[in-house]
């Protein structure tokens, strides 16, 4: 099975390579080292989703876009707005750290972030770092990092707007204004999204009749903005914010009552960037993030709220050989709920050291981070990366490192009642990772192969939760992208073995194979595209007694330029009306259509 997938992906890659044209090697990456790097110098396993890519992706939610990226798998408890988990290289969903403009937004109660509540319209770009990154970002980054950069303004004032309507009575509208005036740059966006949705309870599930199988809708209002002021020289001060309020209906056995979750995701920050010398740049960031959910059913309301206060100070110093990173972070986490937590806050102080250098054909990166957690004491993690430019087109890279993840407040203390709840004796999960990658980039095309081996100790599982398991996460990712003439092709193949080493059972909701293909073409005033996902069979439980079948989904989209600044967009998802599940018992949308009108001032 693995070999046939690999042969197919390689055949596609080699055929496309012979057709390719020019490449842009000037892409800048930040997340892989916390410092700006040219893409060919990056040693981490990274891919970048630009605003242009997001506009052409033919999707309306961030979760849908992420589900089609190399090395990522997704599960959702229903349709739009439902709780979504992203597994990077087979790690737990709570092992994925999500940052918005550098601030972490993961919930301290569940460990996950509400990716389903982050509006795609407010995003300028997304950087995905696959593999453990605790030596850079501390806890929550045991599997990888997804960093979201919101819109920024520059140049002459530009206005854009988008309005769309589709199946399930879906309606979307958004508008934005951005630009600059002398030393001041600005960006402002607002938007709405409403849909009647689908039933979150799948027809395939053996659920009690008390579960209401009506449609479960999602409604969202979002707002984002930024102001940057350029001081003397290259110094600048700025602020940014993102806030999204969503209401997601779901089925929880309350009869005809429309159970729902009111969600709020927010990030606010003020930053100051100073060039303290020719070779020394200082960045200070003061911020606050919020993750809140109120679950409302026929009998009660449950509230979970995480507030995080952040202070970051990073210094980048050019040395005679390479560049150094020295940073300090202070993070205060506080949770509140309708249930009682024995402990409801903790502080984390972190100290970072890093060094990276390009020495001829050699690339080096060293990172170390020391976290002092008020609950769990001290944890030190590190990573060593090395790369070698074999030729102008070929390069090889490798990295080894350690990572950890602190237990969530839910795992420790929830629910606190007479029946017992969490386990306050839990210890952090620890991981050791090794990977090697081979990249080829030339003439408008890029081919990458990454092999990885991650061992997680003290894996938290079961309920009440306990540090009982060891997990092995072994696999390979083959990814290819090319632009030739008027065609664009992206292909990726993931092979994964994610198992509990004690029981030898596969970890839930993770497929052993996943193949993604997308093909786009510009034809006159049209841009046409299609994407195909093929995901292998999975299990929904730790004992592997509840299987979920594999599935394939085909989508298509088109854009027609009505004028220099106006375009018509069409999208058809799940064209074959495939019935499938990403989480046992939860529905997924059948065939659905979407049409929209986009205006973008040039």
From TrEMBL:
Which InterPro entries does this chain map to? Beta-barrel_TonB, Beta-barrel_TonB_sf, Plug_dom, Plug_dom_sf, TonB-dep_rcpt-like
- PROSITE patterns in the cross-refs: TONB_DEPENDENT_REC_3 (PS52016)
Q: Does the keyword Transmembrane apply?
A: yes
User: Could you tell me which residue ranges the TonB-dependent receptor-like beta-barrel domain spans?
Assistant: 184-575
Tell me the keywords, alphabetical order.
Cell outer membrane, Ion transport, Membrane, Receptor, Signal, TonB box, Transmembrane, Transmembrane beta strand, Transport
Q: How does it sit in the membrane?
A: Multi-pass membrane protein
- In the UniProt record, the signal sequence range is 1-22
Q: Which residues form the TonB-dependent receptor plug domain?
A: 41-145
Keyword Membrane tagged: yes
Which compartments is it annotated to reside in? Answer: Cell outer membrane
Task: Quote a single Gene Ontology cellular component term.
Answer: cell outer membrane
Q: Output one GO BP term.
A: monoatomic ion transport
Please state which protein family the record places this protein in: Belongs to the TonB-dependent receptor family.
Name the UniProt record assigns to this protein: Outer membrane cobalamin translocator
């Amino acid at each position: 099975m693995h070999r046939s997938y690999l042969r197919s992906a390689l055949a596609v890659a080699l055929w496309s390579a012979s057709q390719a044209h020019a490449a842009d090697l000037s892409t800048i990456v930040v997340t892989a080292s916390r410092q700006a790097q040219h893409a060919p110098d990056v040693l981490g396993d990274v891919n970048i989703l630009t605003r242009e890519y997001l506009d052409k992706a033919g999707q309306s939610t961030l979760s849908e876009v992420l589900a089609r990226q190399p090395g990522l798998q997704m599960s959702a408890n229903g349709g739009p707005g439902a709780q979504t988990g992203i597994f990077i290289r087979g790690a737990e969903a709570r092992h994925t750290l999500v940052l918005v403009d550098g601030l972490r937004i993961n919930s301290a109660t569940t460990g996950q972030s509400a990716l389903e509540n982050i509006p795609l319209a407010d995003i300028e770009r997304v950087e995905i770092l696959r593999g453990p990154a605790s030596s850079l970002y501390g806890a929550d980054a045991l599997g990888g990092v997804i960093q979201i950069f919101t819109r920024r303004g520059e140049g002459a004032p530009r206005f854009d707007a988008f309005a769309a309507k589709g199946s399930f009575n879906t309606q979307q509208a958004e508008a934005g204004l951005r630009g600059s005036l002398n030393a001041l740059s600005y960006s402002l966006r607002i938007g709405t999204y409403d849909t009647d949705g689908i039933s979150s309870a799948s027809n395939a599930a053996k659920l009690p009749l008390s579960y209401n199988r009506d449609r479960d809708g999602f409604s969202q209002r979002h707002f984002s903005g930024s102001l940057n002021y350029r001081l003397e020289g290259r110094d600048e001060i700025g602020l940014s914010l993102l806030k999204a309020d969503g209401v997601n209906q779901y089925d929880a056995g309350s009869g005809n009552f429309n159970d729902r979750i009111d969600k709020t995701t927010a990030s606010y920050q003020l930053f100051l960037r100073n060039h303290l010398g020719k070779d020394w740049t200082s960045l200070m960031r003061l911020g606050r993030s919020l993750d809140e959910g109120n679950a409302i059913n026929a009998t009660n309301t449950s509230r979970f709220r995480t507030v995080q206060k952040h202070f970051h100070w990073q210094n980048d110093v050019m040395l005679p050989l390479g560049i150094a990173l020295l940073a300090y972070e202070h993070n205060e986490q506080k949770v509140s709920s309708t249930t009682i937590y024995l402990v409801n806050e903790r502080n984390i102080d972190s100290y970072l050291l890093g060094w990276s250098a390009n020495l001829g054909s050699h690339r080096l990166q060293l990172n170390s981070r020391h976290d002092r957690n008020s609950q769990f004491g001290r944890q030190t993690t590190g990573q060593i990366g090395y790369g070698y430019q074999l030729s102008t087109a070929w390069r090889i890279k490798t990295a080894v490192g350690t990572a950890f993840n602190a237990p969530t407040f839910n795992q420790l203390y929830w629910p606190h009642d007479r029946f017992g709840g969490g386990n306050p004796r839990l210890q952090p999960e620890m991981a050791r990772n090794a990977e090697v990658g081979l990249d080829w980039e030339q003439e408008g095309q890029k081919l990458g192969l990454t092999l990885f081996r991650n061992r997680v100790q003290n894996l938290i599982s079961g309920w009440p939760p306990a540090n009982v398991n060891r997990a092995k996460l072994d696999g390979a990712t083959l990814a290819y992208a090319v632009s030739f003439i008027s065609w664009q092709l992206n292909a990726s193949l993931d092979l994964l073995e994610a198992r509990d080493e004690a029981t030898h059972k596969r970890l839930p909701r993770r497929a052993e194979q996943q193949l993604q293909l997308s093909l786009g073409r510009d034809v006159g005033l049209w841009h046409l595209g299609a994407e195909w996902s093929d995901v292998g069979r999975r299990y929904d439980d730790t004992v592997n007694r509840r299987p979920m079948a594999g599935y394939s989904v085909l989508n298509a989209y088109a854009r027609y330029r009505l004028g220099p600044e106006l375009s018509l967009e069409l999208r058809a998802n799940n064209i074959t009306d495939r019935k499938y599940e990403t989480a046992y018992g939860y529905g997924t949308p059948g065939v659905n259509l979407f049409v929209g009108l986009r205006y973008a001032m040039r």
